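note to self: the first set is below, dont mix up w the second
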Amino acid sequence: SLGFQLENAPSPDLSLSSGTQLYRRDAEQDRFTSGQYVEDTGKFSGVREPTHREESYTGLVHQTDLTRRLEALGASHKLRVGVEATLADSLDENRGIRTEDRDEYLPLDVQLFDPEKPNYYRPAYSEDVYRRVITDREVRLGYTALAADTRSAFNHGRTVFTSGLRYDLSRIEVEDRRTSTTTPHSEKTSGTPTFHLGANQRAGKRVLLFANTSSAVEPSTRVDSRTGEIQENEATHGYEFGARTVLFERKLSLSAIAYRYINTDIARRNPLYNDPVADAGQTQPQLVSSGEEEFRGYSVQSGWKPVPTWTFTARAAWLEAITVSSPDIPEEEGLPLTNVPEFTAGAGVRRSFLDGRLRGLSLNGSVTHVGEVVQNYARADRIRIDYPAYTVVGAGAGFTLPRGKIVHTFSANISNLLDENLLAKIDRLNAERSLSVGWRVAF
């Protein structure tokens, strides 16, 4: 990564900020595929095989903002205009072993994995062995955004209004280099406006009320296998409002927020795709961008620091997440989303030693509760699965040791301290009690 930042003030009320960053990331990943864990047999279903994946990502990001501050109409205003640009190129190649080559390269106890008698053997990577091309794709992205926003503070900052407009222009090209693909090249250019409106109001000396509404987009790179078209960008919009307060000489903080968000234009499978009647001529697209989800709920949060050495935190959230529209699974419309709990809560405590022989030591503990969820609904090929609520406890310790200009930080954390059996309760593997340790050096 290489970055350049420029900060300048042409005049007392005008400031310029500009930054450019060039970065590259390369990664190789060797892993095994795995099916679902079957409790009756104690083994994984399907055939297990090794895969080799190579990814690279190169990007250039630039942002320039010009900010003007002024006093007008009895208020302090901040006006900002900016431009953002991103160029990115990513490569993704994932290979496996051909079906006809499995018995030659993989022992049977590798293909049929038994966690009680694991065999982690894998042949060394070479293209002669890993001849099955799972993914071989290049994605080129170009984003440009023009933004303008304002902040106006009235009555010495007791009342604040914010607003913003943004226009995102994106150019996406996808190259699929697999020999089996029917759409080797796909491209899309789109432009989308988004907005933000917000307000803050102080009530008394210690309460802040706030409300805002906004919209956003997420560029899509998913390609329809039949039409070769890149799907429409996913969009979201919503609003939130709440309050914050700080009491007892800033030792206690409380906040509450309520919200409603809607995600639209989600790519879903076309129910008419490969239909013997509606798609007899093979003209139906594989995907349709008509999925919609709604999230509404509220959360409360508190923090208490009675003395500098003790900190207590707590948070609880209630969420109703439902499927509004799903053309591929219409029977789930109006039902809660899978794997999204309706209630979650957590609490933590931290003890820090600021002086004496234990200076630099900190101890912490936490409790996390996750409510019941629907893992999946009943379909022709599966039954409905519901998971109950569960609670886990964690504990940890840290120690900071400064040595001149070098600072060493040691940490140790225990997850699932009480060893809750999450495999039996929610079918989660590798979630038993575990210890992790770390060492960090800053210089």
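second set (the one i keep forgetting abt)
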Amino acid sequence: MTAITAITVITAITAMAAITAITAIAAITAITVMAVMAIITIMTAMAVVIA
């Protein structure tokens, strides 16, 4: 019984950690993409103003 409980707890923690990591990676990726798009937009706007 104790072994089964321990395995269940470890599995649950591992699953939560994996989900958290995936969520964090997805969030970082989204933020990075948005930042790059914002930089490109600003650069384009500056180029238009200079031109």
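remember for set 2: Residues 2-50 form the longest helix (49 residues).
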